[in-house]
Amino acid sequence: MEIKWIEDFITLAQYQSFSRAAEFRNVTQSGFSRRIQSLEQWVGAELIDRSSFPPVLTPAGRLFRETAEDVLAKLFDTRAVIRTEQRIEGTSLQIFAGHTIALNFLPSWLKALAPQFGEVRARVTPTNVHDSIVALVNGNCELMFSYHHPELPLHLDSAKYEHITVGLDTLMPTTKPNRRSAPEFRLPGTRQNPLPLISYSKTSYFGRCQALLLKRQKVAPSLRVHYESDMAEVLKKFVLEGEGVAWLPKSTITKELGSGELVPAGTSAWNLDVELRVYRDSSNRSDFLDTLWHHLRALSPAQK
């Protein structure tokens, strides 16, 4: 039996709708239904009367709900006590973020908080978007940083998870220059000589951004995948070695563009603008977090 099954069950009891409860729990309706069925199998009784509309709890379901809510409350209270004891002393934050954000954005962002808040200590966990969302939903972090594009939204309930735009970035095609300082590999390439692509994996967020950008092009580029990775920093290393072209966040290559070590592999038509957002669980409140959130909202580019 898994705790998320109990949370699903309680949510369903509150909403009395499989579709609304599944949306709130950030899972497909079919997946949500399977988890409710798994819980019923574990209990050994039907908890939901599916013959009524809206669905209601069976007598067994009402009995189980009373115990389930009490058990969850005790578990979460105990977890809160343990996490408080494990926190870094002083003003601190638990942060989950993508690898690129953790490496290139967060150090300067945390340092910039000092004039307003003094020293802010942070436990930063670099990970992929999926695991970051899981950490936020499960209450394992106070802030989650992620890139965002309106056509590739994160499936988070906006009523429960607030966000603020803290930066803007651009995915741009980049390559090593040749001896004449021109691009070694220039988009769109040709069928006879397709460009070697240093690509993101298809399931990564930047991989989805790359696919969206290429789909938008009126003239399809001629590309062949040369290397592949989830991490922008890995792609950057390959591009610096002259292995091909890659779409890299501009924020990660500002120095190399300025020095001429890297150059754009195409015009701005091949670029994709993205936001950098920070998310928090609206129910996770503290005086420091609320004050910080107000400060970030005032500084947000989206508010200007």
UniProtKB/TrEMBL annotation:
<dbReference type="Pfam" id="PF03466">
    <property type="entry name" value="LysR_substrate"/>
</dbReference>
<dbReference type="Pfam" id="PF00126">
    <property type="entry name" value="HTH_1"/>
</dbReference>
<dbReference type="InterPro" id="IPR036388">
    <property type="entry name" value="WH-like_DNA-bd_sf"/>
</dbReference>
<dbReference type="InterPro" id="IPR036390">
    <property type="entry name" value="WH_DNA-bd_sf"/>
</dbReference>
<dbReference type="InterPro" id="IPR000847">
    <property type="entry name" value="LysR_HTH_N"/>
</dbReference>
<keyword id="KW-0804">Transcription</keyword>
<feature type="domain" description="HTH lysR-type">
    <location>
        <begin position="1"/>
        <end position="58"/>
    </location>
</feature>
<comment type="similarity">
    <text>Belongs to the LysR transcriptional regulatory family.</text>
</comment>
<keyword id="KW-0238">DNA-binding</keyword>
<protein>
    <submittedName>
        <fullName>HTH-type transcriptional regulator YjiE</fullName>
    </submittedName>
</protein>
<keyword id="KW-0805">Transcription regulation</keyword>
<dbReference type="InterPro" id="IPR005119">
    <property type="entry name" value="LysR_subst-bd"/>
</dbReference>
